[in-house]
């Protein structure tokens, strides 16, 4: 009988998840002070290096364990397949680009609101996943359906539901994932 060994099969999604958990635990230990300092983007002086850092690190912060679990479940579900297809460096780039796009957009469009969490990355992964069977000159029906279902739901919720969820981050994350999915799949062929 062959021994089963546990492998670190997807370094970027696993590493990202571990970082998010560490940030959540740090947040609990500091009563949220670490989130406000490093892991939440909000309107602050562009002259401050921390403002620019938070444009990227806000995706590591989560307001609750449920918030964390909801995002990390998708990251761990979709991330390994995407990393196998596109490589670790590309997946790290997807996370950084999505973080920056959602962070800047929140800064400009919602100056009175803070933003934290990996939801934008989750939506980028969802739309990026729908491009796995993409061929140049074709637009898979799955891409259209995923875009309509996920982004349409976020637009509807953004317009008609009042909650503490950044639908803008979901929508921009999805658009970022779709654009990167198109680019990465077109380039790899």
Features:
189 residues, mainly alpha, globular
Would you kindly provide a written description of the structure presented here, covering whatever features stand out?
This protein has 189 residues and is mainly α. The chain has one domain: Rhomboid-like fold. It contains 8 helices and no strands. α4 crosses α5 and α5 packs antiparallel against α8. The longest helix has 22 residues. The radius of gyration is 17 Å and the shape is globular. It starts with 10 loop residues before the first helix and ends with a helix. The model has no long low-confidence stretch (mean pLDDT 88).
Structural classification: mainly alpha
**Gyration radius, rounded:** 17 Å
Beginning-to-end CA distance, first to last residue: 41 Å
> What number is the mean pLDDT?
88
Number of strands: 0
Give the gist of this structure:
This protein has 189 residues and is mainly alpha-helical.
């Amino acid at each position: 009988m062959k021994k089963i060994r546990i492998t670190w099969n997807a370094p970027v999604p696993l590493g990202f998840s571990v970082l998010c958990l560490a940030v959540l635990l740090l947040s609990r230990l500091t009563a949220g002070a670490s989130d406000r300092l490093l892991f939440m983007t909000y309107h602050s002086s562009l002259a401050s290096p921390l403002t620019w850092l938070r444009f990227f690190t806000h995706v590591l912060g989560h307001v609750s364990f449920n918030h964390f679990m909801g995002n990390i479940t998708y990251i761990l579900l979709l991330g390994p397949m995407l990393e196998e297809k596109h490589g670790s460096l590309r997946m790290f780039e997807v996370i950084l680009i999505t973080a920056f796009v959602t962070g800047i957009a929140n800064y400009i469009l919602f100056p009175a609101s803070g933003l934290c969490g990996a939801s934008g990355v989750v939506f980028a992964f969802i739309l990026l996943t729908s491009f796995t069977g993409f061929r140049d000159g074709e637009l898979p029906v799955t891409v259209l359906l995923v875009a309509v279902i996920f982004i349409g739901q976020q637009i509807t919720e953004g317009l008609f539901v009042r909650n503490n969820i950044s639908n803008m981050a979901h929508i921009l994350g999805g658009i970022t994932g779709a654009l990167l999915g198109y680019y990465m799949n077109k380039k790899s062929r």
